[in-house]
Amino acid sequence: MKPIAFVGAGRMASAMVEGLLRAQEIAPDRITVCGGPDPTARELSERTGVSVAEPATVAEGADFVILACKPQQLPDLDPALLAALECKAVISILAGVPLRKLRAAAPRARLIVRAMPNTPGQIGAGITAFAADPEPTEEDARVTTAILGALGETVAVDEADLDAVTGVSGSGPAYVFEFTAALREAARAQGLAPDVADRLARATVLGAAKLMHAAPEVTPEEQRDRVTSPGGTTEAGLRVLAARDLRRTLHETVAAATRRSRELGS
Ligand SMILES: NC(=O)c1ccc[n+]([C@@H]2O[C@H](COP(=O)([O-])OP(=O)(O)OC[C@H]3O[C@@H](n4cnc5c(N)ncnc54)[C@H](OP(=O)(O)O)[C@@H]3O)[C@@H](O)[C@H]2O)c1
Question: Alpha-carbon distance 239 to 30, whole Å?
């Protein structure tokens, strides 16, 4: 992989750098990072051996530049850095910043990618959807997928779909955490000790997720039916979820998050 640069060295940039190095996609001396006033860039360099530069020079010599600061920091980026993006490929993970704004900041970049990762990406277990302007060459698509792949799975979408992606996989981990907390509270209500209730709820969500991951050809509905015997305990529980219309609740949850993403982006 040709040299790459990161603008921002916080949680997401660190996860990407560490994932790329772990996968041996690139050597540390071909990665340069910069940060803002805090010492995140120096700390990432000390941990991984990547180089540190000032924002004005970080993109020099890089072929791909990853924007991984906070969205509100985009207008404050060093003009020398933005000027240096000419002819380079730029991948932005800034939540909610549309391709048109990124293109306005880097009008002469050869490729701009807007990506929407999620928090499990911090441990390489995320899914990142991305849209590109213009359509990337085969080689640029390969490198883009390798860089974003450091956070987990990747999927190419139209930019118009990124609000829905935000409502599903962007906000989705929070729905699962809330479900886990509710399961823990329900376990407590049945008289289980707090630590037992907590362990049961976490391990059940993790185990079910791993089971789905291990058998991608089996639908969630089939997995559900495999634990549900007629007249049994699971069926009794599922009947309550159906009566309270869990599916409708989630439908409205995702719709509300998607709507909010559209509002914030417009
Ligand atoms: N966290 C997630 O799971 C997640 C999910 C989806 C999308 N995202 C997106 O990922 C991006 C990064 O999130 P994060 O959680 O990694 O943030 P973070 O930990 O706060 O890191 C932000 C980084 O940007 C640097 N920075 C600040 N001002 C800068 C400037 N003017 N020039 C260059 N670098 C600057 C900071 O440096 P110093 O602190 O050293 O000053 C820090 O290294 C955000 O845009 C967010 O929308 C994150």
Answer: 56
Class of the CATH domain delimited by 170-265: mainly alpha
Q: What is the residue extent of each domain of the chain?
A: 4-160, 170-265
Torsion-angle region of 191 (φ positive above 0: left; ψ -120 to 50: alpha; else: beta) = left
What are the residues whose beta carbons fall under 8 Å from the beta carbon of 27, sequence distance 6 or more? none
Between helix 172-189 and helix 194-214 the angle, nearest 10°, is 140
User: Cα of 252 to ligand 1 centre, how many Å?
Assistant: 30
Bridge partners, residue 89, by sequence:
64, 111
From the CA of 35, how far away is ligand 1's center (Å)? 8
Q: Which of 44, 45, 50, 69 to mutate to test the pocket of ligand 1 (most atoms within 8 A of CB)?
A: 69
Domain 4-160 = CATH 3.40.50.720: yes
**From atom 39 of ligand 1, which residue's Cα is the shortest distance away?**
38
For the question of whether the overall pTM of this predicted structure is more than 0.90, the answer is yes
| CB of 73 closer than 6 angstroms to any ligand 1 atom | yes
Q: What is the pLDDT along the chain (266 residues), one digit of tens a residue?
A: 999 999 999 999 999 999 999 999 999 999 999 999 999 999 999 999 999 999 999 999 999 999 999 999 999 999 999 999 999 999 999 999 999 999 999 999 999 999 999 999 999 999 999 999 999 999 999 999 999 999 999 999 999 999 999 999 999 999 999 999 999 999 999 999 999 999 999 999 999 999 999 999 999 999 999 999 999 999 999 999 999 999 999 999 999 999 999 998 76
**Contact partners, residue 153, CB within 8 Å, separation at least 6:** 126, 127, 128
